[in-house]
Amino acid sequence: MTETLALIVIGAGMAGINAAKKCSQAGWSVAIVDELPYGGTCALRGCDPKKMLRAGAEAVEAVRRLEGKGIAGETRIYWPSLMKHKESFTEPVPESMESGLMSIGRQS
């Protein structure tokens, strides 16, 4: 079977998915090409995970800055728990992205 497409998007990150969605909603036939897992660098390994990890470091820094100014006690990052917190945000991304892509295809 040969199918003619109006657009082939390379990469299932946020930019690619947004482009595919807008074009599909405009009536274009669209395909996305990417390796699994879907989600792109930002959602899986970049911006979003960084925000989760940075929040822990910022909390420790805030406590240390306020030491002796009404805040007392040792604060430290327990890495396994912080990583589990980060993964609670990143692990659902590929399945969510794939479901979203499938719903785009059904809209056409």
Written description of the protein model:
With 108 residues, this protein is mainly alpha-helical. The protein contains 5 helices and 2 strands. The protein has helices at residues 14-25, 40-44, 47-66, 79-90, 93-107, and strands at 7-10, 30-33. It has a two-stranded parallel sheet. It is elongated.
Structure, briefly:
This protein has 5 helices and 2 strands.
Structural class: mainly alpha
Number of strands: 2
Tell me what portion of residues adopts beta-strand conformation: 5-15%
Level of helix content? 55-70%
Which helices and strands, and how do they pair?
Layout (H helix, E strand, L loop, with lengths): L6 E4 L3 H12 L4 E4 L6 H5 L2 H20 L12 H12 L2 H15 L1
Parallel strand pairs: 1-2
Helix pairs in contact: 1-5, 3-4
Short key terms for the protein model shown above:
single chain; 108 residues; mainly alpha; 2 strands; 7% strand; elongated
